[in-house]
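USER: My hope is that you can spare some time for a protein that puzzles me. I am handing you a single protein, as its sequence and its fold in token form. Walk me, if you will, through where the backbone shape changes along the chain. The protein I mean follows directly.
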Amino acid sequence: MIFIMLCLALLGGIALAIQASVNGKLGAQVGVFKSAFLTFSVGALVTGLLVFFFDPKHELTLFDVLKWQLMGALLGVPYIVIMVLAVGKIGTAVATVAVIFGQLAMSLLIDTLGWFHNEAIAFSIPRLLAVICLGIALYFIYQSNRQTAE
């Protein structure tokens, strides 16, 4: 099961990179906010159909959960808008690795401190080294883009 979840996460990452590239081009042609609006409109339609046809019954509804848990929906907006803006300026690879770097750094904090009612996972040097390695990768990818542009 873990292998399947890792493969699905990998596919999700592939989809996000493609989405960033496509949305970056679309945003440059029709506008950042129109591109973001299209993303959320189509996403809402598809997700609504999935909920209607496939979502099993749950004990709680969106009205019953702790209200801070709803902020995840709001946090998708800056991600999409920032990616549409950034891809056109710094390229898909740099923008994507920068996002992943931010995700990894924040995820390490969330895991270590057990924020948002998640089970705490002990801080370790290998986890810190992973963040550092990704930071180094970001630097080299960014430098490669700058050299190519010159």
About this structure: The chain has a mean pLDDT of 93. The chain has one domain: 19-149. The chain has five helices and no strands.
